[in-house]
Amino acid sequence: MRERVDFESACLIHHRVVGEQDAVVTVFSRRYGRLSLWVQGKLSQPGSIPLFKPMLISWRSKGSSHQLIKLEVDSAYPTLLKAELTSEYLFSAFYVNELIQHFLPELADSSSLYDDYLWYLESMAQRVFIEPVLRIFERQLLISSGWLNDLSVDLLTGEAIRADAYYIAVNHEHYGVGVTLLRAEPQTYHSAQVSNEIEATKTSQACRILGATLIAFNSNNLSNQVSLNEVKGLMRWFIRCLLNGKPLKSRSLFKSFKLTL
Question: Three-state SS for 68?
């Protein structure tokens, strides 16, 4: 990375105080993905850098250490700068930030995903139906971060998803990605190991999904409640698998307010 970066569009993801006048903040930036910055002075205090607002930030780097030196609002996003997220819209944004903290690589160009994130925040500011937008962002985050295979194809055969076939989720152990989908019929594959794994995985209904639902999901069309419920189960399975049992703090907010996003 360059020794100094100026006016990079970024959003605060996490703020951790480490002293009376010091903090470490995690930001999601357009060209550098997830980045941790050392902050001193007034900006180190909680609330001094607003959440869910695009900022233009400047920092200097020395080795693997990065220090924030300047911050101002990014006026290119007036809707977000004026918006105040509340209730379930606020909680869902906290959840998305936590996913970014877990899954987005550090110092990786994430321009497309950054646009997806701002789209998500704008959707929350407009108080749209949360679940379809949330599922789409979850998918984009995991694919962009390399944890999820393209959901439009069967990874092993390379064949396009068939509307009339069922597919199951499998973990990364043999397939070189975090999680992916394989067609649910073992006879589709030549490998006995793959066939046996599919038979074992089919006992978990949360991992099984109709091809037509996947096609709709890939087209960002989740207007059908049945399809939305299937996709919700699938994405929850993917995320639970990748977290390997580690709880998400934002989930406790959902439970406290009886939300089921």
Answer: strand
Contacts with 238 (C-beta within 8 Å, 6 or more apart), sequence order: 138, 142, 147, 148, 169, 178, 179
d(CA 97, CA 72) in angstroms, rounded, equals 21
For tokens 């699938």, the residue is: 234
Strand runs labelled E in the chain: 4-19, 22-29, 33-40, 55-62, 65-73, 166-171, 179-183, 208-210
Dihedral, CA of residue 157, residue 140, residue 200 and residue 176, to nearest 10: 60
Interatomic CA distance for residues 184 and 245, integer angstroms: 25
| H or E element at residue 110 | none
Residue 251 tokens read as 């989930």
User: 167: pLDDT confidence band, cut at 50, 70 and 90?
Assistant: confident
What tokens appear for 93 in the block? Answer: 């944004």
Residue showing tokens 């396009």: 160
Structure tokens at 112: 């497309």
Residues 6+ apart with CB under 8 A from 111: 30, 31
- Domain coordinates of the chain in residue numbers? 4-73
Res 173: pLDDT = 57
Residue of higher predicted confidence among 129 and 177 = 129
Q: Which CATH superfamily is domain 4-73 in?
A: Nucleic acid-binding proteins (2.40.50.140)
* Model confidence, pTM: 0.88
Residue 109: left if φ>0, alpha if ψ -120 to 50, beta else—which one? beta
124 pLDDT more than 90: yes
**Cα(219)–Cα(152) distance, rounded to whole angstroms?**
10
Cα of first residue to Cα of last residue in the chain, in angstroms, is: 37
Distance, in Å, from the CA atom of 48 to the CA atom of 159, rounded to the nearest integer, reads: 50
| Percent of the chain clearing pLDDT 90 (strictly above) | 57
